[in-house]
Amino acid sequence: MPQIIDGKMVSAMIKDELKAQVTALKNEQGISICLAVIQVGNDPASTVYVGNKKKACAYIGIDSLSYELPEETTQAELVSLIRELNQKEEVTGILVQLPLPDHIEEDEIIRAIDPQKDVDGFHPQSVGALCIGQPGFISCTPAGIIQLLKRSGITIAGKECVIVGRSNIVGKPMALLLLRENATVTVAHSKTVNLQEITRRADILVVAVGRPRMITREYVKEGAVVIDVGIHRNEAGKLCGDVDYEDVAPVCSAITPVPGGVGPMTIAMLLYNCVEAGKAGRR
Ligand code: NDP
After folding, report:
1. Superfamily name with CATH number, domain 140-263
2. 30-115, what's its fold?
3. pTM score > 0.85 for this model?
4. Same fold, 30-115 and 140-263
5. Cα 275 → chain centroid
6. What confidence score (pLDDT) does residue 225 get?
């Protein structure tokens, strides 16, 4: 049987480390950390995500401020709120829950956030810094995957890594992070020819394709490590990933389950970014 990479356990460990840091920052340096969370409209999935993020903040001792704006909020109104929060010294991090309603231009909203408070790591300045190996906030899901691999005792350096998916929030930053860890990296996408041939080269296969159970054992080399980023509900209402877990688990050496794999790591790394933002903001 493969090693089950336990994201719940690793994320709990990280949260407890951060909780201790937050307490020390408060008690020893009088630093308090505050995340402003903005949600536009009331998409039920977004409401759940925002709720989980606020709960996680409370757990480690970070304050959170909620801005629940109506669906018809204009681009200008949203930008103006972000600018206001950029100026507020007590707000150390800003998160705008995506997706935004169709009439709002996401890129402009992301650019409006002060890069020093960009705890999602989506601002072009954060992405650019990652690209050239400078310090900056890193997109939470790929950062979480690196932590998962490292804390599960999986060596990255020198490994052949294949990522299926090239989104700005997962695939691309994942490629840059694996490269930074000295892996040899290939990024596949919907126009890739002979996908199976490429994925079967991977020692570490990261799947962020957004298609339920697309990756079956034919895509996986015997003994590979398989990281499943996808989250879907199957016909029976149960959560599943982009990887067909039952089919793939017997052929790989380690695999992340869904739920309980990559998902919990995303929030843990958001908290990590919040703490870093708090420290940097109050120096
Ligand atoms: P996107 O839809 O933005 O990107 C999907 C990528 O997969 C694209 O690059 C697309 O290629 C590629 N792709 C689609 N179909 C194929 C195919 N048949 N063969 C090869 N490549 C294909 O998704 P995200 O990156 O945002 O998310 C991916 C998954 O991860 C989703 O299930 C999402 O719900 C989940 N997710 C989970 C998170 C977590 O915390 N666990 C966080 C973020 C996302 P192209 O670029 O050519 O269109």
Report:
1. NAD(P)-binding Rossmann-like Domain (3.40.50.720)
2. Rossmann fold (3.40.50)
3. yes
4. yes
5. 16
6. 99
- In angstroms, rounded to a whole number, what is the distance separating the alpha carbons of residues 20 and 198? 43
From the candidates 120, 228, 242, 244, which is the catalytic residue? 120
In the chain, where are the structural domains located?
30-115, 140-263
The helix/strand count (H/E) of the chain reads as 10, 11
Q: Which mutation among 168, 190, 242 tests ligand 1's pocket best, with the greatest number of atoms within 8 A of CB?
A: 190
pLDDT digits (tens, 9 = 90+) for 203-253: 999 999 999 999 999 999 999 999 999 999 988 999 999 999 999 999 999
Q: Is 53 a catalytic residue?
A: yes
Catalytic residue among 15, 39, 53, 244: 53
Quick one: how far is CA 164 from the chain centroid? Answer: 16
> pLDDT digits over 112-140, tens only?
999 999 999 999 999 999 999 999 999 99
Which residues are within 8 A (CB) of 137 and not within 5 positions of it... i.e. 6 or more apart? 115, 118, 119, 120, 121, 123, 126, 273, 276, 277
Start-to-end CA distance of the chain, whole Å, equals 48
Task: Please say if 97 is a catalytic residue.
Answer: yes
Is 157 in contact with 110 (CB distance < 8 Å)? Answer: no
